[in-house]
Design goal:
The chain is mainly α. It has one domain. The protein has 4 helices and no strands.
Length: 95
């Protein structure tokens, strides 16, 4: 029991650090998201594969009970998913 509590305390700082970095990556994409909403597009393979990768990482962090990081990865994955969706719509409009 004590070892489990110590392990949780040790993992807490990693959870917070990884979450801060993950959230910052999501927030850094907001200017790109604005551009994509207004008609530009990005590579669909990049956006799609990054979305899948971030959601897989969220699942992995979920299994490690790193809840703050799970939320951060889902947030970043969702921003990438929106980039993918709007880019796909914009590419269809161009055709």
């Amino acid at each position: 029991m004590i070892a489990y509590i110590i392990m949780i305390r040790i993992m807490l700082w990693q959870d917070i650090v990884i979450a801060i970095v993950g959230l910052s990556f999501g927030f850094m994409l907001f200017p790109q998201l604005k551009d994509v909403i207004y008609g530009k597009s990005i590579n669909l393979y990049t956006a799609g594969l990054t979305t899948i990768g971030l959601y897989i990482m969220a699942i992995a962090f979920f299994t490690l009970d790193m809840w703050i990081t799970v939320i951060a990865e889902i947030f970043s994955g969702t921003v990438w998913f929106l980039l993918f969706i709007f880019s796909a719509i914009n590419k269809r409009k161009m055709k």
